[in-house]
Design brief:
- The chain is mostly helical.
- The chain is 76% helix and 4% strand.
- The chain is built from 16 helices and two strands.
- A two-stranded antiparallel ribbon has the order 1-2.
- The protein starts with a helix and ends with a helix.
- The N terminus is likely disordered.
Length: 373
């Protein structure tokens, strides 16, 4: 009889390891699908048994992360996962789940989850993926601020996942919060340096600070990374354009021109490359033409050395115009649509006219040089 009573005491003690409140919460949800009652009593269970991690794990997994829950909330799920981990670490032992569970791993094998720690490590990734993908969906809807909030929650599920910081950096840059854009770009690149767009963002921020040498370094990394990643021609072209432009600003014209030729040689029938190259050359032409025209205003007062410098500036403009024209003519030949083909051809005609105008200016400069001798 004493042995029976002793065994009964052991049985009752084992059953009481989880509080009444916790058992009420699980019964309410699993039997009655009453999420409100489950949430209420699980939180009460945390109050009456603060050393028990199961209520926090239950709140995260079954109340806030369950696909069928009307209370689905990624932020709350992340919070209670963290609470469960903190409680679990109090006694230095890994608390067991209510019952072991077999799950499938990516390689097709199965694993038995026995502890709360193992379960959180396993399920965190799938919940992260849901939250991250929802953030991407918000971006497609133009809800960038809401997406930032969700990606910040995603960080809590997978703090070492560089995609989180990549998304945050890009969004912060678009929202013109450059400090946070830089911080998150660095976090992502420290984990994985293969995000070419982040190197480009760092380059653009350097341009904003007039640090063209740093910008060149960043755009070069972006371009080289894109090549290593075997990214699309459009991506390569975009990175090339930025590097091409900053090389000119840093007076590395020969390298810039070589870069452009190499890219076109690698994909000689890509209309986008010719179009972008033409646009870059045309932009550089317009910028340099504006500077040269400023000097032209005082043509009659310039010294011989200043005239020679001005002549070189306009001669460079002819080179830029010719390169832009060549690229637009290639677009005209390669493009299938007749309307687009005519547009590119018309642009090339405008550039030819501009070249003739610049040649006339150079003749005026030569005349002044002759007069100054």
């Amino acid at each position: 009889m004493k042995k029976f009573i002793y065994l009964l005491v052991i049985f009752l003690f084992a059953c009481s390891t989880s509080s009444v409140e916790y058992r009420t919460a699980t019964t309410a949800l699993r039997n009655d699908m009453d999420f409100n009652k489950a949430e209420e009593f699980a939180k009460k269970a945390l109050e009456v048994a603060p050393e028990d991690a199961l209520p926090a794990y239950f709140l995260a997994m079954e109340v806030y992360a369950s696909p069928t829950s009307p209370k689905k909330d990624y932020e709350q799920a992340a919070y209670y996962f963290q609470q469960a981990i903190k409680i679990d670490e109090l006694d230095g032992e890994d608390q067991k789940l209510e019952a072991p569970k077999f799950v499938q791993l990516n390689d097709g094998s199965t694993k038995e989850l026995k502890t709360i720690k193992e379960a959180i490590e396993y399920y965190s990734y799938s919940i992260w993926a849901e939250a991250f993908n929802q953030g991407i969906a918000l971006i497609s809807e133009g809800k960038n601020t809401e997406a930032v909030t969700l990606f910040l929650v995603a960080v809590q599920f997978q703090p070492n996942e560089p995609k989180n910081y990549n998304a945050l950096s890009t969004l912060y840059y678009e929202l013109e919060d450059y400090e946070k854009a830089a911080i998150n770009a660095d976090k992502a690149l420290n984990i994985d340096s293969s995000f070419s767009a982040l190197w480009s963002i760092k380059g653009s921020m350097a341009i904003d600070k007039n640090d063209t040498m740093l910008a060149e370094e960043m755009f070069r990394k972006a371009y080289n990374t894109a090549i290593k990643n075997k990214e699309s021609a459009d991506n390569l072209s975009a990175h090339m354009s930025r590097l091409f432009d900053v090389l000119f600003k840093n007076n590395k014209k020969d390298e810039a021109l070589l870069l452009n030729e190499q890219l076109l040689e690698s994909d000689p029938e890509n209309i986008n490359l010719y179009r972008n190259a033409g646009a870059v050359y045309e932009n550089i032409l317009n910028d340099n033409l504006m500077l040269a025209n400023d000097g032209l205003i005082n043509l009659n007062t310039l010294s011989e050395m200043e005239l020679e410098t001005l002549k070189i500036q306009f001669t460079d403009c002819i080179s830029f115009a010719k390169k832009a024209r060549e690229n637009f003519l290639m677009c005209s030949e390669l493009v299938v649509d007749e309307v687009d083909s005519q547009l590119y051809y018309d642009e090339s005609k405008k550039l030819k006219s501009k070249i003739n105008d610049i040649k006339q200016i150079i003749r005026k400069i030569n005349k002044r040089l002759d007069e100054s001798e």
